[in-house]
């Protein structure tokens, strides 16, 4: 690939440092590029992803919270994106003193992005902290001030057709819904569940679903099964509606066996979690998260309902609504 590319806008982008290497196809390596003194992300893609991105740009031309491309080169199948210094996963990990006000603003912006997708029957399918990009600066007092938040990596997103649901395992296993772990009956409620897990992480700063993958491999345990077990442990027991929703005899049996196996440890249930162990997880915050993490997809709140929840405005110093 040439070190200089011209976008459809006529702007010239000069390729700079490697940002992310593709595991098997160097021609799809992602780079930082510069144009008129500003950094951008230069991302070569396949023909199908290029066309998909063009469709998304048409569908969501003015959605501030969605990270669609800002320029493109069709001959080289290359997309250009705004560059962000932080991803949400590392930002939360590296800033334990991040204010509750900032955390709520981040969550609200991501929630609005998902709500915009759902309003047009699109689902993201890979909602996780490292797919949220953040622009921030340090104040004179040393506090991190959030300037912009966008939901990125829309490559897996798709538009649902009527009531038809997706039957496939897509997205990062640590942030998938129960039906997402199984790969059956995935729709808007699946995104809501993933957003609920992201919400829990941002509020508390704790990764509650991160297993030791080396230990699992040595024990011969499927990671998907381990995460599914944890979800049932925290948010169970398994309702019959979830079994009916996935509509698979083998997985239905597994779900009920996991539910029975975790029934003897009620102290692990999410409703028993204490703020002393999980920062900022007070009663109202637990109520809010519980609306999104019901094991029965039909019982989960919609993103529109979540955006109207009084939780967002209960603190007087939170002025972003």
From TrEMBL:
Supply the InterPro entries for this chain. Kinase-like_dom_sf (IPR011009), Prot_kinase_dom (IPR000719)
Where is the chain membrane-spanning?
none
What the entry lists under Pfam families is as follows: Pkinase (PF00069)
Tell me which residues make up the Protein kinase domain: 1-312
Spell out the SMART domains in the cross-references.
S_TKc
Gene Ontology MF terms: ATP binding; protein kinase activity
**Which PROSITE patterns does its entry note?**
PROTEIN_KINASE_DOM
Q: What is this protein called?
A: Protein kinase domain-containing protein
This chain's source organism reads: Aspergillus fumigatiaffinis
């Amino acid at each position: 690939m040439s070190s200089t590319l011209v976008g459809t806008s006529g702007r010239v982008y000069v390729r700079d440092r490697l940002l992310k290497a593709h595991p098997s196809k160097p021609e799809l390596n992602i780079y930082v590029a510069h144009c008129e003194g500003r950094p951008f992300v230069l991302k070569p893609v396949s023909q199908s992803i290029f066309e998909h991105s063009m469709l998304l740009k048409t569908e969501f031309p003015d959605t501030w919270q969605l990270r669609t491309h800002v320029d493109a080169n069709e001959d080289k199948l290359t997309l250009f994106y705004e560059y962000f210094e932080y991803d949400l996963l590392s930002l939360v990990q590296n800033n334990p003193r991040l204010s509750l006000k900032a955390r709520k603003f981040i969550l609200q912006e991501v929630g609005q992005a998902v709500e915009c997708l759902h309003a047009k029957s699109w689902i993201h399918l890979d909602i996780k902290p490292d797919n949220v990009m953040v622009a921030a600066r340090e104040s004179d007092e040393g506090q991190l001030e959030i300037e912009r938040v966008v939901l990125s990596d829309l490559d897996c997103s798709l538009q649902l057709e009527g009531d038809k649901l997706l039957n496939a395992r897509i997205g990062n296993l640590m942030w998938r819904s129960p039906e997402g772990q199984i790969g059956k009956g995935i729709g808007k409620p699946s995104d809501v569940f993933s957003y609920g897990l992201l919400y829990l992480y941002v509020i508390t700063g704790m990764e509650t679903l991160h297993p030791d993958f080396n230990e699992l491999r040595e024990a011969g345990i499927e990671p998907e099964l381990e995460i599914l077990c944890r979800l049932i442990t925290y948010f169970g027991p398994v309702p019959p509606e979830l079994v009916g929703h996935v509509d698979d005899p083998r997985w239905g049996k597994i779900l009920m066996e996991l539910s029975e196996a975790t029934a003897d440890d009620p102290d692990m249930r999410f409703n028993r979690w204490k703020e002393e162990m999980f920062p900022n997880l007070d009663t109202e915050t637990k109520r809010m998260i519980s609306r999104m993490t019901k094991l029965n997809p039909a019982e989960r709140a919609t993103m529109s309902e979540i955006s109207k929840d009084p939780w967002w405005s209960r603190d007087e110093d939170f002025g972003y609504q």
